Amino acid sequence: MKTFALFLVTAIAEIVGCYLPYLWLNKGASASLLAPAALSLALFAWLLSLHPAAAGRVYAAYGGVYIAVALAWLWAVDGVRPSAWDVAGVAVSLVGMAIIAFQPRVA
Predict the structure, then answer these.
(1) Which of 10, 16, 75, 103 is close enough to 47 for a disulfide, judged by CB 3.0 to 4.6 Å?
(2) Exposure b/e, 39-70, CB count within 10 A at least 16 = b
């Protein structure tokens, strides 16, 4: 559960770090959003470094959680309800994440 929670916070940091420049570039928001965006992306990178597994495995497993959080963001922030296909894709990606993240480790 700790791993999943860390992935969740990491995904939020990444999405915020990318969403704020999007608001500036595409929605006419203030360029002052770039500073918190940079801080959010730095937080994202630091959070990824907290996982004890090999970096490539962490990135691969994190991708599944990122997909789920991105679609939750789509609904909560953009107001677009995910389709049944979106939900199915999230389910598949989370199963993949769990297989990668929670596989038995050989000592």
Answers:
(1) 10
(2) ebbebbeebbeebeeeeeebebbbebbbbbbb
107 in a structural domain: no
Phi, psi of 103 (to 5 degrees): -65, 155
Q: Specify the pTM.
A: 0.84
Domain that holds residue 34: 2-101
DSSP state of 77: T
Q: Is residue 106, in this structure, part of any structural domain at all?
A: no
CA distances from 24 to 13, 34, 37, 44, 49 (A): 17, 8, 11, 20, 28
The Cα-based distances of 70 to 30, 54, 65, 82 in angstroms read 23, 24, 9, 10
Q: What integer pLDDT is reported at residue 107 of this predicted model?
A: 65
